[in-house]
Write a structure and sequence with these properties.
Layout: E1 11-15, H1 22-32, E2 37-38, E3 42-43, E4 58-59, H2 62-70, E5 74-80, E6 83-88, H3 89-97, E7 102-105, H4 108-117, E8 122-127, H5 131-141, H6 146-161, E9 168-171, H7 175-192
Parallel strand pairs: 1-7, 1-8, 2-7, 3-4, 8-9
Antiparallel strand pairs: 3-6, 5-6
Helix pairs in contact: 1-7
Length: 193
């Protein structure tokens, strides 16, 4: 008998406007499905209070980031809110080849890049209950100056218009319900393969 080929993992991409509750939702999804591997992106932005290198992000300077991008090391990369973000191609490919399902948290432009390179990736858009709630969540974070907040809100409007290109849309009105909907999308994807 020949060796049975290892089953390829699934790539799930979760995208949401800033303040839509994506981070809390992803943390809950990871608790409910610990078999998922979360991809840690590279960024040129400074760490926020409490963030740890190689846990929340790989924090690198702009020169290092540009060299990595020029070397083809990123599956996707984008400039968001004045900072650069990128996903390690090798990390994703190795995890998928080993049979691991991977969860990738990136922005809308990055999700589109991933879909072009990996058409089987499942894109999930997390939508806030309303734009007013989104704005309030951003204001409550108190992590941005007024100009940065305005830019994030403008970006959110643009991102919301692109949600129709995603495989699934989940409205994050109540976190537990949104988590269950994300897990159901993942489960259905796995059952189809």
């Amino acid at each position: 008998m020949g060796r049975e080929a290892k089953k390829q993992g699934k790539l799930f991409v979760i995208t949401a406007p800033s303040g839509a509750g994506k981070t809390s939702l992803i943390e809950a999804v990871m608790r409910d499905d610990p078999t998922l591997k979360i991809s840690v992106s590279y960024t040129t932005r400074a760490p926020r209070k409490g963030e740890k290198d190689a846990v929340d992000y790989h924090f690198v300077d702009e020169k290092t980031f540009r060299a990595m991008r020029s070397g083809g090391e990123f599956l996707e990369s984008a400039e968001v809110h004045g900072n650069h973000y990128g996903t390690s191609r090798r990390t994703i490919e190795e995890a998928l080849a080993s049979g691991r399902d991977v969860l990738l948290e990136i922005d809308v432009q990055g999700a589109a890049q991933v879909k072009r390179q990996m058409p089987h990736a499942v894109l999930i858009f997390i939508e806030p209950p309303s734009l007013a709630i989104l704005e309030q969540r951003l204001r409550n974070r108190r992590t941005e100056q007024a100009e940065a907040l305005s830019r994030r809100l403008a970006d959110a409007y643009d991102e919301l218009r692109q949600k129709k290109s995603f495989d699934g849309v989940v409205v994050n009105t109540e976190v537990d319900q949104a988590v269950e909907e994300v897990l159901q999308i993942m489960k259905k994807t796995k059952e189809r393969s």
